[in-house]
Automatic annotation (TrEMBL):
This is Metallophosphoesterase YunD. One of its GO terms (molecular function) is hydrolase activity. Residues 7-205 form the Calcineurin-like phosphoesterase domain. It comes from the Bacteria. Keywords: Hydrolase, Nucleotide-binding, Signal. Residues 282-427 form the 5'-Nucleotidase C-terminal domain. GO terms for biological process: nucleotide catabolic process. The keyword DNA-binding does not apply. Gene3D superfamilies: 3.60.21.10, 5'-Nucleotidase, C-terminal domain. Belongs to the 5'-nucleotidase family.
Length: 468
């Protein structure tokens, strides 16, 4: 006898709910149909479902995302870095308390209190005809952030080896839910012969028909749930083994919306707007935002970052503010709207030459006009860099290019041999935007505060006429 096993999955929604009612409808319809056919079927999420860029996620601190997953009929989920490092320890510890699905993440550990009751390193699920399936979850080890929030993420490979040894004695199939990225998934498949399926995410890769590496089929469905993935496994009960593995992704952007989910999203939006609507400041004058010019708000915000972090100097790109603020009462919703990024303040150490190179690079047209996607940035362009604690003299050439003439700190030119502490957005500690910052051996992140928390402080203290 042959038995089909179906796994429908999503990854990296990032609270982009524009397609969510289609996703929910697709998942509920397929799960109901398979269940009616007595075909084993599970619905799975591979992390970064939550992203505090959206007001619903911000207001409910992710718990509304869990409610939406409950309504869509999820059975299993692992966590991504957006669940793990963008909220306080207590908020994550309670995040899945009301989940109707099992949360599985083998390499996440609390360092300040008992593990959450919802946290499972691995789970075993069973098909209609008794096939035992072991599911292991893994998340990316961003311990520079996690450990500031009293969590630790252990090495995925060592964790996986331990969990596989436990499971393979009692299960027929092993599946890994991996929020590690495509390169790590491929390496895991090469190292571990016992893994049958890796359902991935994190790097937003789309594998339309899966990829075969060693014994495993690897799959992932891009980002924002424009696609929903499906894995189909065929088990031969006579031979007692898997004889076929398939993986597909389906474009759901043209499908009908689920009315019940649409209604729930509308209700959550109303509640979120109310929750975020409390006044935090009152502005007598409009606060202007310009991406390619120095503005008072960016100068004050960068000053706040320098003081907040107790750094020698600070630098912050103007593109982090997406819109101006009109005169009148300002709510947290307004602040979230213009500064939605899950970006934390960070302090790095640079010597004088490195700091000078960073300043020069920040004045290039290429960096200012860069349309960045990712690294926590949810804006349009990087924009002009604003500095605090440094005096920068520039000259503008006939072609419009602006270059650095002189940089001083406390009245003196930058000292090549001195180490300076520089506060900035953690965005620049990743990738190659500003290599000197990314390569700094000393990085101190400030969690759980986001840039918008510093913005709220700045508006209350430097712009508000009344905050009572």
């Amino acid at each position: 006898m042959l038995e089909k096993l179906h796994f429908y999955y999503t990854n990296d929604l990032h609270s982009n709910f524009s397609q969510w009612s289609r996703v929910a409808g697709y998942l509920k319809d397929n799960k109901a149909r398979k269940t009616a056919e007595n075909t084993s079927c599970w619905v799975v999420d591979v992390g970064d479902h939550i992203d505090r860029v959206h007001p619903i996620a911000e207001a409910f601190m992710g718990k509304a995302n869990v409610e939406l997953m409950n309504h869509a009929g999820y059975d299993l989920a692992t966590i991504g870095n957006n669940e793990g490092i963008t909220m306080s320890h207590e908020d994550l510890h309670q995040l899945y308390d009301a989940a109707d699905f099992q949360v599985v993440c083998a390499n996440l550990h609390s360092t300040s209190q008992a593990e959450p009751e919802w946290l499972n390193p691995a789970v075993t699920i069973q098909s209609f005809n008794g096939i035992e399936i072991g599911v292991i979850g893994l998340t990316a080890p961003f311990n520079a952030y996690y450990e500031l929030l009293d969590w630790h993420v252990s090495d995925p490979y060592k964790t996986l080896k331990k969990q596989i040894q436990k499971l393979k004695q009692s299960v027929d199939i092993i599946i890994v839910l991996s929020h590690l990225g495509i390169s790590e998934d491929q390496e895991i498949a090469r190292r571990f012969q016992d893994i049958d399926v890796i359902i991935g995410g994190h790097t937003h890769h789309l594998l339309r028909t899966g990829e075969y590496v060693n014994n495993a089929i690897i799959t992932a469905a891009g980002k924002h749930c424009a696609f929903v993935g499906e894995v189909i496994l065929t088990w031969d009960h006579t031979k007692k083994k898997l004889i076929h593995k398939e993986a597909y992704t389906t474009d759901i952007t043209h499908l009908a919306r689920d009315p019940e989910t649409e209604k729930t999203l509308r209700e959550l939006t109303v509640k979120a707007n109310h929750m975020l609507g409390q006044r935090i400041a009152h502005l007598e004058n409009k606060v202007e935002v310009k991406w390619f010019q120095d503005t008072e708000i960016m100068l004050k915000l960068t000053d706040t970052m320098k003081k907040w972090t107790n750094a020698d100097c600070a630098m912050l790109n103007s593109g982090v503010l997406l819109d101006q603020l009109e005169a009148g009462d300002i709510s947290y919703k307004d602040i979230h709207r213009i500064c939605p990024h899950p970006i934390n303040p960070c302090v790095v150490e640079l010597n004088g030459d490195e700091l000078l190179e960073v300043i020069r690079a920040s004045y290039t047209k290429e960096l200012m006009e860069l349309k960045l996607k990712g690294f926590g940035f949810r804006g349009e362009v990087i924009g002009r860099m604003t500095f605090s604690g440094l005096k920068i003299e520039t000259e503008v050439h006939q072609d419009g290019h602006e270059s650095i003439k002189k940089v001083t700190f406390n009245g003196k030119q930058l000292d090549q041999s001195r180490t300076y502490t520089v506060a900035t957005a953690d965005t620049f500690t990743f990738g190659r935007l500003l290599p000197e910052i990314a390569k700094s051996e000393t990085k101190k992140y400030f969690l759980p505060e986001f840039l918008r928390d510093l913005l709220a402080y700045t508006l209350r203290n430097d712009f508000s006429q009344s905050d009572d």
